[in-house]
Design a protein that fits this description.
Elements lengths: L2 H23 L23 H18 L6 H17 L3 H4 L5 E5 L6 E3 L4 E5 H6 L3 H16 L2 H12 L11 H14 L3 H6 L5 H17 L5 H17 L4 H5 L3 H13 L10 H12 L16 E10 L4 E8 L4 E7 L2 E2 L8 E2 L21 E5 L7 E2 L3 E5 L4 E7 L8 E11 L1
Parallel strand pairs: 1-3
Antiparallel strand pairs: 2-3, 4-13, 5-12, 6-11, 6-13, 7-8, 7-13, 9-10, 9-12
Helix pairs in contact: 3-6, 6-10, 6-11, 10-13, 11-13
The structure holds zinc ion (ZN).
Length: about 425
Protein backbone atom coordinates (compact mmCIF):
# COMPACT_ATOMS: atom_id res chain seq x y z
CA UNK A 1 0.00 0.00 0.00
CA UNK A 2 1.42 3.40 -0.88
CA UNK A 3 1.33 6.34 1.53
CA UNK A 4 -1.63 8.00 -0.12
CA UNK A 5 -3.68 4.81 0.02
CA UNK A 6 -2.84 4.32 3.70
CA UNK A 7 -3.80 7.91 4.37
CA UNK A 8 -7.10 7.45 2.56
CA UNK A 9 -7.65 4.23 4.45
CA UNK A 10 -7.11 5.92 7.83
CA UNK A 11 -9.36 8.77 6.83
CA UNK A 12 -12.06 6.33 5.84
CA UNK A 13 -11.81 4.40 9.11
CA UNK A 14 -11.72 7.56 11.24
CA UNK A 15 -14.80 8.83 9.48
CA UNK A 16 -16.75 5.73 10.44
CA UNK A 17 -15.42 5.79 14.00
CA UNK A 18 -16.57 9.40 14.27
CA UNK A 19 -19.95 8.58 12.79
CA UNK A 20 -20.26 5.64 15.15
CA UNK A 21 -19.30 7.75 18.18
CA UNK A 22 -21.73 10.43 17.15
CA UNK A 23 -24.53 7.93 16.77
CA UNK A 24 -23.87 6.25 20.09
CA UNK A 25 -23.26 9.33 22.19
CA UNK A 26 -25.75 11.65 20.63
CA UNK A 27 -29.35 10.69 21.20
CA UNK A 28 -31.15 10.62 17.87
CA UNK A 29 -34.48 10.97 19.66
CA UNK A 30 -36.61 13.91 18.68
CA UNK A 31 -38.72 15.97 21.04
CA UNK A 32 -38.32 17.00 24.66
CA UNK A 33 -37.15 14.57 27.31
CA UNK A 34 -39.28 15.86 30.12
CA UNK A 35 -42.95 15.15 30.78
CA UNK A 36 -45.07 17.74 32.52
CA UNK A 37 -47.30 15.66 34.73
CA UNK A 38 -49.96 18.36 34.97
CA UNK A 39 -50.50 18.09 31.22
CA UNK A 40 -51.06 14.35 31.12
CA UNK A 41 -54.56 13.36 30.02
CA UNK A 42 -55.29 16.76 28.50
CA UNK A 43 -55.54 17.63 24.81
CA UNK A 44 -57.97 16.91 21.99
CA UNK A 45 -60.62 14.48 23.16
CA UNK A 46 -64.26 14.19 22.19
CA UNK A 47 -65.12 11.71 24.94
CA UNK A 48 -65.57 12.81 28.54
CA UNK A 49 -64.31 10.57 31.34
CA UNK A 50 -67.93 9.89 32.40
CA UNK A 51 -68.95 8.86 28.90
CA UNK A 52 -65.82 6.77 28.58
CA UNK A 53 -66.87 4.84 31.68
CA UNK A 54 -70.37 4.39 30.29
CA UNK A 55 -69.09 3.09 26.94
CA UNK A 56 -66.62 0.78 28.60
CA UNK A 57 -69.50 -1.36 29.85
CA UNK A 58 -70.76 -1.93 26.31
CA UNK A 59 -67.23 -2.43 25.08
CA UNK A 60 -66.45 -5.09 27.69
CA UNK A 61 -69.61 -6.98 26.85
CA UNK A 62 -68.89 -7.08 23.13
CA UNK A 63 -65.16 -7.59 23.52
CA UNK A 64 -65.57 -10.60 25.75
CA UNK A 65 -67.78 -12.18 23.11
CA UNK A 66 -65.07 -11.61 20.50
CA UNK A 67 -62.16 -12.74 22.63
CA UNK A 68 -61.89 -15.77 24.87
CA UNK A 69 -61.27 -14.75 28.48
CA UNK A 70 -59.24 -17.24 30.46
CA UNK A 71 -61.65 -18.71 32.94
CA UNK A 72 -59.28 -19.42 35.80
CA UNK A 73 -59.74 -17.87 39.26
CA UNK A 74 -56.12 -18.43 40.39
CA UNK A 75 -54.44 -16.48 37.59
CA UNK A 76 -57.32 -13.99 37.52
CA UNK A 77 -56.73 -13.15 41.19
CA UNK A 78 -53.00 -12.84 40.59
CA UNK A 79 -53.25 -10.44 37.65
CA UNK A 80 -55.79 -8.31 39.52
CA UNK A 81 -53.56 -8.06 42.59
CA UNK A 82 -50.62 -7.11 40.43
CA UNK A 83 -52.60 -4.40 38.65
CA UNK A 84 -54.09 -3.04 41.86
CA UNK A 85 -50.66 -2.84 43.51
CA UNK A 86 -49.61 -0.50 40.71
CA UNK A 87 -52.80 1.58 40.87
CA UNK A 88 -52.94 1.91 44.64
CA UNK A 89 -49.44 3.31 45.06
CA UNK A 90 -49.27 5.77 42.18
CA UNK A 91 -48.64 9.38 43.18
CA UNK A 92 -50.89 10.38 40.27
CA UNK A 93 -54.18 9.33 41.86
CA UNK A 94 -56.13 12.05 40.06
CA UNK A 95 -55.38 10.25 36.78
CA UNK A 96 -56.44 6.89 38.23
CA UNK A 97 -59.69 7.88 39.93
CA UNK A 98 -62.95 7.82 37.99
CA UNK A 99 -62.30 4.55 36.16
CA UNK A 100 -63.67 1.12 36.83
CA UNK A 101 -60.37 -0.72 36.60
CA UNK A 102 -60.21 -4.41 35.76
CA UNK A 103 -57.45 -6.77 34.66
CA UNK A 104 -58.23 -9.91 32.71
CA UNK A 105 -56.29 -12.60 30.90
CA UNK A 106 -57.18 -13.44 27.28
CA UNK A 107 -56.76 -17.05 26.22
CA UNK A 108 -54.56 -16.19 23.27
CA UNK A 109 -51.00 -17.24 22.53
CA UNK A 110 -50.13 -13.96 20.86
CA UNK A 111 -47.70 -11.89 22.95
CA UNK A 112 -49.79 -8.80 23.60
CA UNK A 113 -51.56 -6.71 26.20
CA UNK A 114 -53.92 -3.83 25.59
CA UNK A 115 -56.04 -1.19 27.24
CA UNK A 116 -59.62 -0.37 26.31
CA UNK A 117 -61.93 2.38 27.52
CA UNK A 118 -62.61 3.00 31.19
CA UNK A 119 -59.61 1.20 32.69
CA UNK A 120 -60.33 -2.25 31.30
CA UNK A 121 -57.01 -3.93 30.66
CA UNK A 122 -56.40 -7.25 28.97
CA UNK A 123 -53.24 -9.34 29.02
CA UNK A 124 -52.83 -12.33 26.71
CA UNK A 125 -51.67 -15.58 28.27
CA UNK A 126 -48.97 -15.63 25.57
CA UNK A 127 -47.39 -12.57 27.17
CA UNK A 128 -47.38 -14.07 30.68
CA UNK A 129 -45.97 -17.35 29.38
CA UNK A 130 -43.16 -15.61 27.52
CA UNK A 131 -41.81 -13.20 30.15
CA UNK A 132 -39.45 -14.47 32.79
CA UNK A 133 -39.72 -12.03 35.67
CA UNK A 134 -42.62 -10.62 37.62
CA UNK A 135 -41.39 -7.07 37.08
CA UNK A 136 -41.42 -7.64 33.29
CA UNK A 137 -45.11 -8.50 33.48
CA UNK A 138 -45.63 -5.57 35.85
CA UNK A 139 -43.90 -3.35 33.27
CA UNK A 140 -46.25 -4.45 30.50
CA UNK A 141 -49.30 -3.88 32.71
CA UNK A 142 -47.99 -0.55 34.01
CA UNK A 143 -47.55 0.57 30.40
CA UNK A 144 -51.19 -0.25 29.58
CA UNK A 145 -52.30 1.52 32.77
CA UNK A 146 -50.33 4.49 31.46
CA UNK A 147 -52.39 4.49 28.25
CA UNK A 148 -55.57 4.72 30.31
CA UNK A 149 -54.19 7.44 32.63
CA UNK A 150 -53.10 9.48 29.64
CA UNK A 151 -56.58 8.97 28.11
CA UNK A 152 -54.83 7.69 24.99
CA UNK A 153 -57.58 5.27 24.00
CA UNK A 154 -60.37 7.86 24.01
CA UNK A 155 -58.10 10.40 22.33
CA UNK A 156 -57.25 7.91 19.58
CA UNK A 157 -60.93 7.09 19.08
CA UNK A 158 -61.66 10.82 18.85
CA UNK A 159 -59.04 11.25 16.15
CA UNK A 160 -60.30 8.22 14.22
CA UNK A 161 -63.87 9.45 14.41
CA UNK A 162 -62.75 12.70 12.86
CA UNK A 163 -60.61 11.05 10.22
CA UNK A 164 -63.44 8.73 9.29
CA UNK A 165 -65.68 11.81 9.10
CA UNK A 166 -68.27 10.07 11.19
CA UNK A 167 -68.73 13.24 13.18
CA UNK A 168 -67.99 16.91 12.74
CA UNK A 169 -65.21 18.65 14.61
CA UNK A 170 -66.34 20.06 17.92
CA UNK A 171 -69.10 17.52 18.46
CA UNK A 172 -68.77 15.52 21.65
CA UNK A 173 -69.16 11.77 21.42
CA UNK A 174 -71.83 11.06 24.00
CA UNK A 175 -75.13 9.33 24.60
CA UNK A 176 -76.76 7.09 22.04
CA UNK A 177 -75.30 8.98 19.10
CA UNK A 178 -71.89 8.32 20.63
CA UNK A 179 -72.61 4.59 20.83
CA UNK A 180 -73.39 4.62 17.12
CA UNK A 181 -70.12 6.39 16.37
CA UNK A 182 -68.21 3.82 18.38
CA UNK A 183 -69.95 0.83 16.79
CA UNK A 184 -69.16 2.08 13.31
CA UNK A 185 -65.51 2.54 14.30
CA UNK A 186 -65.39 -0.99 15.70
CA UNK A 187 -66.81 -2.29 12.43
CA UNK A 188 -64.07 -0.55 10.48
CA UNK A 189 -61.56 -1.97 12.96
CA UNK A 190 -62.69 -5.59 12.47
CA UNK A 191 -64.79 -6.05 15.63
CA UNK A 192 -64.41 -4.76 19.18
CA UNK A 193 -61.70 -7.25 20.22
CA UNK A 194 -59.49 -6.64 17.20
CA UNK A 195 -60.13 -2.91 17.37
CA UNK A 196 -58.56 -2.51 20.81
CA UNK A 197 -55.93 -5.22 20.48
CA UNK A 198 -54.65 -3.51 17.33
CA UNK A 199 -55.16 0.13 18.28
CA UNK A 200 -52.11 2.16 17.35
CA UNK A 201 -51.01 5.08 19.48
CA UNK A 202 -48.86 8.03 18.54
CA UNK A 203 -45.18 8.05 19.42
CA UNK A 204 -45.82 10.71 22.07
CA UNK A 205 -48.55 8.64 23.65
CA UNK A 206 -46.26 5.61 23.76
CA UNK A 207 -43.60 7.70 25.45
CA UNK A 208 -46.07 9.07 27.94
CA UNK A 209 -47.29 5.53 28.72
CA UNK A 210 -43.69 4.41 29.24
CA UNK A 211 -43.04 7.42 31.47
CA UNK A 212 -46.14 6.67 33.55
CA UNK A 213 -45.14 3.00 33.76
CA UNK A 214 -41.74 3.99 35.19
CA UNK A 215 -43.34 6.34 37.76
CA UNK A 216 -46.04 3.90 38.79
CA UNK A 217 -43.66 0.96 39.04
CA UNK A 218 -41.36 2.99 41.25
CA UNK A 219 -44.28 4.14 43.41
CA UNK A 220 -45.40 0.51 43.80
CA UNK A 221 -41.79 -0.54 44.46
CA UNK A 222 -41.59 -2.73 41.39
CA UNK A 223 -38.15 -2.37 39.86
CA UNK A 224 -38.87 -0.09 36.85
CA UNK A 225 -35.96 -1.73 35.04
CA UNK A 226 -38.49 -4.54 34.50
CA UNK A 227 -39.94 -2.47 31.67
CA UNK A 228 -36.58 -2.39 29.87
CA UNK A 229 -36.10 -6.06 30.56
CA UNK A 230 -39.55 -6.66 29.04
CA UNK A 231 -38.62 -4.93 25.79
CA UNK A 232 -35.28 -6.74 25.61
CA UNK A 233 -37.12 -10.02 26.11
CA UNK A 234 -39.44 -9.22 23.19
CA UNK A 235 -36.51 -8.36 20.96
CA UNK A 236 -34.89 -11.69 21.84
CA UNK A 237 -38.09 -13.60 21.13
CA UNK A 238 -38.34 -11.90 17.74
CA UNK A 239 -34.78 -12.89 16.92
CA UNK A 240 -35.28 -16.48 18.02
CA UNK A 241 -38.49 -16.84 16.05
CA UNK A 242 -37.10 -15.02 13.05
CA UNK A 243 -40.50 -13.31 12.76
CA UNK A 244 -41.41 -9.88 13.99
CA UNK A 245 -43.98 -9.31 16.74
CA UNK A 246 -46.33 -7.19 14.65
CA UNK A 247 -47.16 -4.52 17.22
CA UNK A 248 -43.51 -3.83 17.98
CA UNK A 249 -43.05 -2.59 14.42
CA UNK A 250 -45.86 -0.08 14.92
CA UNK A 251 -44.44 1.28 18.17
CA UNK A 252 -41.38 3.52 18.45
CA UNK A 253 -38.23 1.43 17.94
CA UNK A 254 -37.15 -0.52 21.02
CA UNK A 255 -33.71 1.13 21.30
CA UNK A 256 -35.39 4.53 21.41
CA UNK A 257 -37.82 3.42 24.09
CA UNK A 258 -35.07 1.90 26.20
CA UNK A 259 -33.18 5.18 26.01
CA UNK A 260 -36.25 7.11 27.06
CA UNK A 261 -37.12 4.73 29.91
CA UNK A 262 -33.51 4.65 31.16
CA UNK A 263 -33.44 8.44 31.30
CA UNK A 264 -36.56 8.55 33.47
CA UNK A 265 -35.33 5.74 35.70
CA UNK A 266 -32.12 7.71 36.25
CA UNK A 267 -34.20 10.60 37.62
CA UNK A 268 -35.86 8.48 40.31
CA UNK A 269 -34.81 8.57 43.97
CA UNK A 270 -33.21 5.40 45.33
CA UNK A 271 -35.74 2.88 46.61
CA UNK A 272 -35.93 -0.75 47.68
CA UNK A 273 -37.78 -2.74 45.08
CA UNK A 274 -39.39 -6.10 45.57
CA UNK A 275 -41.32 -8.68 43.56
CA UNK A 276 -42.60 -12.17 44.26
CA UNK A 277 -40.69 -14.15 41.66
CA UNK A 278 -41.62 -17.51 43.14
CA UNK A 279 -45.33 -16.76 42.95
CA UNK A 280 -44.94 -15.44 39.42
CA UNK A 281 -43.24 -18.64 38.26
CA UNK A 282 -45.87 -20.81 39.89
CA UNK A 283 -48.67 -18.81 38.21
CA UNK A 284 -46.86 -18.95 34.88
CA UNK A 285 -46.51 -22.74 35.12
CA UNK A 286 -50.13 -22.99 36.18
CA UNK A 287 -51.26 -21.00 33.11
CA UNK A 288 -49.11 -23.17 30.85
CA UNK A 289 -51.12 -26.21 31.96
CA UNK A 290 -54.49 -24.60 31.21
CA UNK A 291 -56.42 -25.70 28.08
CA UNK A 292 -55.38 -23.98 24.83
CA UNK A 293 -57.62 -21.36 23.19
CA UNK A 294 -60.96 -22.85 22.11
CA UNK A 295 -61.29 -20.67 19.09
CA UNK A 296 -58.45 -21.94 17.04
CA UNK A 297 -56.17 -19.08 16.21
CA UNK A 298 -55.58 -19.23 12.49
CA UNK A 299 -52.06 -20.44 11.94
CA UNK A 300 -50.10 -18.92 9.10
CA UNK A 301 -49.48 -22.37 7.65
CA UNK A 302 -53.20 -22.91 7.23
CA UNK A 303 -53.42 -20.00 4.87
CA UNK A 304 -52.06 -20.41 1.38
CA UNK A 305 -49.06 -18.40 0.41
CA UNK A 306 -49.20 -17.24 -3.21
CA UNK A 307 -46.66 -15.45 -5.36
CA UNK A 308 -48.11 -12.04 -6.17
CA UNK A 309 -45.32 -10.32 -8.10
CA UNK A 310 -41.65 -10.40 -9.06
CA UNK A 311 -40.00 -6.99 -9.29
CA UNK A 312 -36.68 -5.34 -9.95
CA UNK A 313 -36.04 -2.75 -7.25
CA UNK A 314 -33.24 -0.42 -8.44
CA UNK A 315 -30.67 0.75 -5.91
CA UNK A 316 -30.84 4.34 -7.13
CA UNK A 317 -34.55 4.96 -6.65
CA UNK A 318 -35.65 6.43 -3.31
CA UNK A 319 -38.92 4.55 -3.00
CA UNK A 320 -40.11 2.01 -5.52
CA UNK A 321 -43.88 1.73 -5.95
CA UNK A 322 -44.76 -1.99 -6.07
CA UNK A 323 -48.32 -1.11 -7.18
CA UNK A 324 -49.49 -3.65 -4.65
CA UNK A 325 -52.25 -2.43 -2.34
CA UNK A 326 -52.39 -4.31 0.93
CA UNK A 327 -55.39 -4.66 3.18
CA UNK A 328 -55.59 -4.16 6.94
CA UNK A 329 -54.04 -7.07 8.85
CA UNK A 330 -52.77 -8.67 5.65
CA UNK A 331 -49.67 -10.79 5.84
CA UNK A 332 -47.02 -10.92 3.17
CA UNK A 333 -43.67 -12.59 2.67
CA UNK A 334 -40.94 -10.80 0.76
CA UNK A 335 -37.89 -12.55 -0.63
CA UNK A 336 -35.05 -10.64 -2.21
CA UNK A 337 -31.96 -11.64 -4.20
CA UNK A 338 -29.23 -9.89 -6.14
CA UNK A 339 -26.85 -7.12 -5.28
CA UNK A 340 -26.71 -3.37 -5.49
CA UNK A 341 -23.71 -1.07 -5.37
CA UNK A 342 -23.87 1.75 -2.83
CA UNK A 343 -21.15 3.74 -4.59
CA UNK A 344 -20.78 3.26 -8.33
CA UNK A 345 -17.24 2.18 -9.21
CA UNK A 346 -16.32 1.06 -5.71
CA UNK A 347 -15.94 -2.73 -5.81
CA UNK A 348 -16.27 -2.94 -2.02
CA UNK A 349 -19.61 -1.17 -1.95
CA UNK A 350 -21.73 -4.04 -3.28
CA UNK A 351 -24.27 -5.53 -0.95
CA UNK A 352 -27.03 -8.12 -0.82
CA UNK A 353 -30.53 -7.23 0.45
CA UNK A 354 -29.08 -7.72 3.94
CA UNK A 355 -26.96 -4.58 3.44
CA UNK A 356 -23.50 -3.80 4.79
CA UNK A 357 -22.75 -3.67 8.55
CA UNK A 358 -21.99 0.04 8.39
CA UNK A 359 -23.86 2.90 10.04
CA UNK A 360 -24.01 6.38 8.53
CA UNK A 361 -26.09 9.44 9.22
CA UNK A 362 -28.02 8.94 6.01
CA UNK A 363 -30.21 5.95 6.75
CA UNK A 364 -33.99 5.82 7.05
CA UNK A 365 -33.51 2.99 9.57
CA UNK A 366 -30.44 4.13 11.58
CA UNK A 367 -30.06 0.82 13.44
CA UNK A 368 -30.11 -1.47 10.43
CA UNK A 369 -27.46 -2.26 7.88
CA UNK A 370 -26.63 0.29 5.23
CA UNK A 371 -28.22 -0.55 1.89
CA UNK A 372 -30.53 -3.24 3.24
CA UNK A 373 -33.91 -3.70 1.57
CA UNK A 374 -36.59 -1.83 3.51
CA UNK A 375 -40.28 -1.10 3.07
CA UNK A 376 -43.14 1.17 4.03
CA UNK A 377 -46.91 1.15 3.63
CA UNK A 378 -48.31 4.30 2.05
CA UNK A 379 -46.34 6.93 0.16
CA UNK A 380 -46.28 9.45 3.01
CA UNK A 381 -45.50 6.91 5.73
CA UNK A 382 -42.37 7.22 7.84
CA UNK A 383 -42.88 3.88 9.53
CA UNK A 384 -40.11 2.03 7.75
CA UNK A 385 -39.46 -1.63 8.33
CA UNK A 386 -36.55 -3.90 7.53
CA UNK A 387 -37.03 -6.61 4.93
CA UNK A 388 -33.54 -7.93 4.21
CA UNK A 389 -33.34 -11.06 2.09
CA UNK A 390 -36.46 -12.63 3.55
CA UNK A 391 -39.11 -11.39 5.91
CA UNK A 392 -42.72 -11.96 6.83
CA UNK A 393 -44.65 -8.78 7.47
CA UNK A 394 -48.03 -8.21 9.03
CA UNK A 395 -49.63 -5.03 7.78
CA UNK A 396 -51.64 -3.31 10.47
CA UNK A 397 -53.15 -0.56 8.37
CA UNK A 398 -53.46 -1.32 4.70
CA UNK A 399 -52.06 0.77 1.86
CA UNK A 400 -49.65 0.81 -1.08
CA UNK A 401 -46.43 -1.14 -0.55
CA UNK A 402 -43.22 0.75 -1.31
CA UNK A 403 -39.74 -0.74 -1.29
CA UNK A 404 -36.43 1.02 -0.89
CA UNK A 405 -32.82 0.84 0.14
CA UNK A 406 -31.63 1.75 3.64
CA UNK A 407 -29.58 4.66 2.42
CA UNK A 408 -30.57 8.23 1.70
CA UNK A 409 -27.74 9.09 -0.73
CA UNK A 410 -28.94 6.88 -3.55
CA UNK A 411 -27.97 8.86 -6.65
CA UNK A 412 -24.56 7.16 -6.96
CA UNK A 413 -25.97 3.66 -6.56
CA UNK A 414 -26.14 0.95 -9.20
CA UNK A 415 -27.71 -2.47 -9.62
CA UNK A 416 -31.05 -3.78 -8.45
CA UNK A 417 -32.56 -6.29 -6.07
CA UNK A 418 -34.86 -8.94 -7.46
CA UNK A 419 -37.83 -9.04 -5.16
CA UNK A 420 -40.55 -11.68 -4.91
CA UNK A 421 -43.68 -10.76 -3.03
CA UNK A 422 -45.92 -13.51 -1.65
CA UNK A 423 -49.32 -12.87 -0.15
CA UNK A 424 -51.29 -15.08 2.27
CA UNK A 425 -54.71 -15.76 0.78
ZN1 LIG B 1 -48.37 1.09 24.08
Amino acid sequence: MNKLKIYKHILFISFYILVFLFLTTCAPMKGPWEIREERIGKGFNLISKEDELEYSKQVVQKLEQDLEILNDPTSQRYIEQLGKRILKNSHLQHLIKGYDWSFKIVNSNEINAFATLGGKIYVNRGLIENVEKEEELAGAIAHEIGHVMGRHVSKEISKMALINAIIQAGVIISGEEGSKVLSSLFKIGGGVGAFFARLKFSRDDEREADYLAVQNMHDARFDPYGLISFFKRLKKIEEERGAPIWWLSTHPPIHERIEWISYHISKLPIADYYSDQRRFISIKNHIKRLPPPKKKEKKEKEKKLELEKVLNVPGNVAWFDTQIDLEDNQEIVIEALGEICLQKGNPKAWCSPEGLPIKTLQQPLPDENLGALIGKIGEESQDYFLIGSKNKIKVLKGGRLFLGVNEELISDNAGAFIVKIYVFK
